[in-house]
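User: Sequence recovery, please. Input:
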């Protein structure tokens, strides 16, 4: 198991910079990752804006987030976990380009 596989399993891969360029592109170091981030980020809402939308809508605090920038099915999306003051956990999926709420799951 590689370090990357361990991070994927732990759900921590989104905390690292994007993977470097594919072989043969002529990019060195993190240049491939920078190019990827520039291509993806220009169309997506900033995480801070997405966080504000979720926290205001659900009167809760974001405790975990994950960006799925290029999913195989559907639009790019942010997966957020929020906790209310009463301890209720809410899992929300928001459209990463528009901020539209796609899915809400709550637990008591």
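Assistant: Recovered sequence (108 residues):
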């Amino acid at each position: 198991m590689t370090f990357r596989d361990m991070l994927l399993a732990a759900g921590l891969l989104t905390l690292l910079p994007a993977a470097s360029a594919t072989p043969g592109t002529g990019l060195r170091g993190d240049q491939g990752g920078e190019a990827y981030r520039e291509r993806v980020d220009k169309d997506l809402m900033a995480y801070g804006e997405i966080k504000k939308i979720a926290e205001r809508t659900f009167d809760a605090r974001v405790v975990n987030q994950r960006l799925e920038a290029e999913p195989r099915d559907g639009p790019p999306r942010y997966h957020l976990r929020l906790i209310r003051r009463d301890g209720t956990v809410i899992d929300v999926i928001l459209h990463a380009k528009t901020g539209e709420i796609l899915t809400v799951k709550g637990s008591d």
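Helices lie at 3-10, 31-41, 47-58.
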